[in-house]
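User: tokens in, sequence out, please.
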């Protein structure tokens, strides 16, 4: 099979000439194709069958031990102009980048099959969706792309109709980290990745296309490609509000996307619907609202920590037809990771488990699974027009300073809140504890262009007829003097979402502070929670003296992006700084 589209055939021919595969297979996405590929991978050891009684259809893949995560220092944005990539990206001139990586692609598929994967990011019939073609020499990538995207014949038909697609060329190469690059050419709508078979480096539809290339495309076309979950909150009256939320890693994004309401809420009729857990494309609709799709069809979720306690929906989702990567295995061949009951027999590298070797499952071990298997999956995830977004939430891991929730006063302030967000590092992540890392809109590793231009693009949505979502910031991680978390988190976060939705509807109250609108204690539903009186005071506290320092630091951060930083955003930062100063002045007497 080849395509009716000459540009696609020509590109596949040119890649084959360079990479010299033994054979070429065009993927149609069919069940038969998937079964044949799976049988080949089981036969050659790429995949191992897990316990088919407890986990029907599930397999295990072990990646090379040096290839276990995204590699930000080897991830480049190769725009013509270095300033267009910005200080937030590693940059290389396109000609130099092509020459460097093409030398590595030369002959790299000898003895291998070249797979052509046409895919669509988003519902196949949605005008908000965009298509791509990934060429790869990894059958594991084909199997994952089949779960994570709408892959195969319908995508190819759309590509042939539209004539445009993102070109993604991938080879596992020799897996040598010294010959590993993930390069993006936004002006050419193309991606080249070599030397890794893992996750975001290899499944090019995900971070490379749906965030880095799409964010560039979105800027030129007037929409937003964001690192956000999308969740629908249905109230007892049967009304559903959709919320998009961005968090840096290790802040419980998948848990929030699949939240299970606390008993009292469930009994009252509240429901939570998962539209997406990682990426959100939003476009202004004819009604002025932002309409969102999840461009992905599956979850590539982190396994460790996923449990009946933290995320029962994710656990149920992965009970069948999942690909597990780098997890441990029990003696009866079930997938295992830290946080699950039971004990591992074999670790992620296939060695007999020995606690002295570190965690049994790799900390970045993953499950790949169809979104439709999630018990809270929303069938509106398939809506061609997307879902209307009522609220955008930014969040971070802030043990002090930042209240449980606050609302930005308007869109411009909300953009500042998103630009300023960040998390304090945990011991598990780096060893350097308590260091604040700013990660604007959780897009630091994924924004395909200069952050200053990205903030300007966000600001540009504030048009006269726009009915933009309200913007909020949440912090589930504030700690008390005893070092313990003050807020129970998980399902109880629905209480905060209820307030957020109430603010959107005009039914919930708040108090104005210099940093935004904060609920008073009576504005949040806390019945049935075992929270000390003091805990809620601390959770909702805004201390202007501490915020003075924070807002000064935000100013320094914005300045680090140089002259392209929009003056409007700087002015907004000064407005907040002035409001904080004003609140610190002693109240003037009536006599003046
Ligand atoms: O390490 C990888 O390649 C996966 S990273 C990832 C996977 C799913 C969702 N989000 C992320 C991320 O790094 O944000
Ligand atoms: Mn992510």
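Assistant: Sequence out:
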């Amino acid at each position: 099979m080849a395509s009716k589209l000459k540009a696609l055939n020509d590109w596949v021919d040119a890649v084959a000439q360079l990479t010299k595969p033994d054979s070429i297979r065009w993927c149609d996405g069919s069940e038969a194709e998937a079964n044949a590929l799976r049988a080949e991978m089981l036969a050659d050891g790429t995949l191992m069958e897990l316990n088919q009684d407890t986990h029907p259809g599930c397999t295990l893949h072990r990646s090379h031990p040096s290839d276990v995560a995204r590699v930000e220092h080897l991830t480049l944005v190769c725009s013509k102009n270095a300033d267009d990539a910005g200080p937030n990206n590693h940059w290389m001139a396109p000609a130099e980048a092509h020459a460097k990586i093409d030398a590595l692609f030369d002959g790299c598929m000898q003895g291998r099959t070249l797979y052509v994967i046409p895919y669509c990011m988003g519902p196949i019939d949605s005008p908000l969706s965009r298509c791509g073609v990934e060429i790869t020499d990894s059958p594991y990538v084909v199997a994952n792309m089949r779960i994570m995207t709408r892959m195969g014949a319908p995508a190819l038909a759309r590509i042939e109709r539209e004539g445009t697609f993102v070109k993604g060329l991938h080879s596992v190469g020799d897996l040598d980290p010294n010959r590993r690059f993930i390069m993006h050419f936004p002006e050419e709508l193309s991606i080249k990745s070599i030397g890794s078979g893992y996750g975001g480096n290899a499944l090019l539809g995900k971070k490379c296309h749906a965030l880095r290339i799409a964010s560039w495309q979105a800027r030129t076309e007037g929409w937003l490609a964001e690192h956000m979950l999308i969740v629908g909150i249905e109230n007892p009256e049967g009304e559903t509000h959709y919320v998009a939320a961005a968090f840096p890693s290790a802040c419980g994004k998948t848990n929030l996307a699949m939240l299970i309401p606390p008993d009292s809420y469930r009994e009252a009729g509240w429901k939570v619907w998962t539209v997406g857990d990682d990426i959100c494309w939003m476009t202004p609709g004819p009604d002025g609202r932002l309409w969102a799709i999840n461009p992905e069809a599956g979850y590539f979720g982190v396994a460790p920590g996923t449990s009946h306690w933290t995320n029962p929906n994710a656990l149920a989702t992965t009970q069948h037809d999942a690909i597990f990567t780098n997890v441990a295995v029990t003696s009866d061949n079930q997938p295992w990771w830290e946080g699950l009951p039971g004990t591992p027999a074999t670790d992620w590298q296939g060695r007999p488990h020995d606690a002295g070797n570190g965690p049994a499952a790799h900390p970045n071990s993953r499950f790949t699974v169809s979104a439709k298997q999630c018990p809270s999956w929303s069938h509106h995830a398939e809506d061609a027009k997307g879902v209307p977004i009522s609220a955008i939430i930014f969040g971070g891991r802030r043990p002090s300073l930042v209240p449980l929730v606050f609302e930005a006063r308007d869109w411009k302030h909300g953009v500042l809140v998103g630009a300023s967000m960040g998390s304090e590092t945990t011991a598990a992540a780096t060893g350097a504890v308590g260091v604040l890392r700013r990660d604007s809109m959780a897009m630091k590793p994924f924004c395909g262009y200069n952050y200053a231009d990205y903030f300007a693009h966000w600001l540009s949505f504030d048009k006269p007829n726009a009915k933009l979502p309200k913007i909020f910031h949440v912090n589930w991680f504030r700690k008390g003097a005893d070092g313990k978390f003050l807020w129970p988190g998980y399902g109880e976060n629905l209480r905060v979402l209820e307030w957020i939705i109430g603010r959107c509807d005009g039914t919930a109250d708040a108090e104005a502070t210099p940093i935004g609108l904060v609920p008073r204690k009576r504005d949040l539903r806390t019945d049935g929670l075992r929270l000390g009186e003091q805990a809620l005071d601390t959770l909702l506290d805004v201390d202007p003296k501490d915020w003075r320092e924070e807002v000064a630091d935000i100013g320094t951060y914005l300045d680090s992006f140089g002259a392209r930083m929009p003056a409007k955003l700087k002015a907004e930062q000064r407005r907040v700084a002035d409001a904080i100063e004003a609140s610190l002045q002693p109240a003037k007497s009536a006599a003046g």
